[in-house]
Amino acid sequence: MIQDAVDAAESGDTILLGPGRFPETVDFDYYNGRTIQTCISLDKSLVFVGSGVNQTFIGPTNGKTEYGTYGLASRSSNLDLEIRDLTFIDCDGFTILFDMDTGGQLSVENISTENCFGGIGLIGTFGGSIRNCSFNNLEHNGITIFEGGDGIVIENCFFSGGAAQINIAFPESRNITISDCVLENGLYGIILNDCGPVTIRSCEMENHRVVGISVGATTGVSIEDCIIMSHAQGESIRMLNNQYLIVQNNILEGGFGAITVLSPSPNMDFSNNHILKSPDGYSIWVSQNYSGPATNLDFTNNYWGTNDPEEVADSILDGFDSDDIDMYVLFEPMADGPISTESTTWDELKSLYR
Can you give the pLDDT of all 354 residues of the chain as single tens digits? Predict the structure, then answer.
């Protein structure tokens, strides 16, 4: 059992995991008197090194439990956890639940998560990184920073959503960087809520049924050099009440709308993007539920797939089209042509993670 090695180890030790599957579980005291099952219960700083994602597997074989069976769970303070080169499989809870009351740092690299409820859940984690990992066929979220996360980097990761998944969610977190990731399927790609600053760059997102990136009540978000192509009924970017929002050098295409604006975003720089509408959708759809003063939305200096202003105006639903809408999209002057990009095909990108 891995837990025997954990119990015998001193803080800072490295535990090497050989090939095979480790299905054993132990009791773990969680909130409100609940006891959950987990393959690893952690109360000290350790390093776990597997023999490879196709060699070392951690996951239960005893079916579903009342509160879910987790891969690794911790509710301590100021722990440093490093884990790499293995696969979590068939967990009906989170694969890693790292709940640090007053800080802690997580470093995860070359981890695969397969057929689990959720991927990595972080609370109160200060610093760390998640690199070169894949999250496949999950019921819940790939990575969730519930609250208090600060200074976390997510890089070169692959997300393929399950039936009801959010690939990445960040409520109430700060100083987050997401770069060079591929996110596909599921309901949402990335949800940002009441957080910031956050940087999202050089990511590719495809076929999310609701929205690729939802940005709500944030301060200091930058989305740059991304390709976001939503589901036939979805949106690429949804915006609600954000401060200091930068969206530049992206290719955006949505089935319902490439961009949905629910309320104005003060201090917004939305420029040099390639904004495309589907045949039956909008390039920009503006909500009629906004109840503030009449506001102009600056979407100038973008390319819209055409140089004809009338075609662009016809692809936008805003206050110029309906007296019930108090937001007006300004799109002239337009960029002369498409932005330059070095996009790789989806098949080539996916092959990097398989």
Answer: 999 999 999 999 999 999 999 999 999 988 777 889 999 999 999 999 999 999 999 999 987 777 789 999 998 888 999 999 999 999 999 999 988 766 789 999 999 999 999 999 988 888 899 999 999 989 889 999 877 788 999 999 999 977 667 899 988 889 999 999 999 998 999 999 999 899 999 999 999 999 999 999 999 999 999 999 988 889 999 999 999 999 999 999 988 999 999 999 989 999 999 998 888 889 999 999 998 899 999 999 999 999 899 999 999 999 999 999 999 999 999 998 776 654 444 455 445 434
Residue 42 sits in a domain whose CATH number is: 2.160.20
In a domain, 146, yes or no: yes
- Looking at the fold, whether 76 and 160 belong to one and the same domain comes out as yes
- Last residue of some domain: 135, 167, 199? 167
Q: Where are the beta strands (DSSP E) in 225-334?
A: 227-229, 235-240, 243-248, 251-254, 257-261, 268-271, 274-277, 282-286, 295-298, 316-317, 327-330
Domain count, the chain: 2
Q: Which of 256, 252, 259 is nearest to 273 (CA)?
A: 252
59, part of any domain: yes
Range of the domain at 147: 1-167
Interior CA angle at 264 toward 329 and 330, to 5°? 15
Q: Reduce the DSSP state of residue 118 to 3 states and report it.
A: strand
Q: Provide the token pair at 289.
A: 């539920």
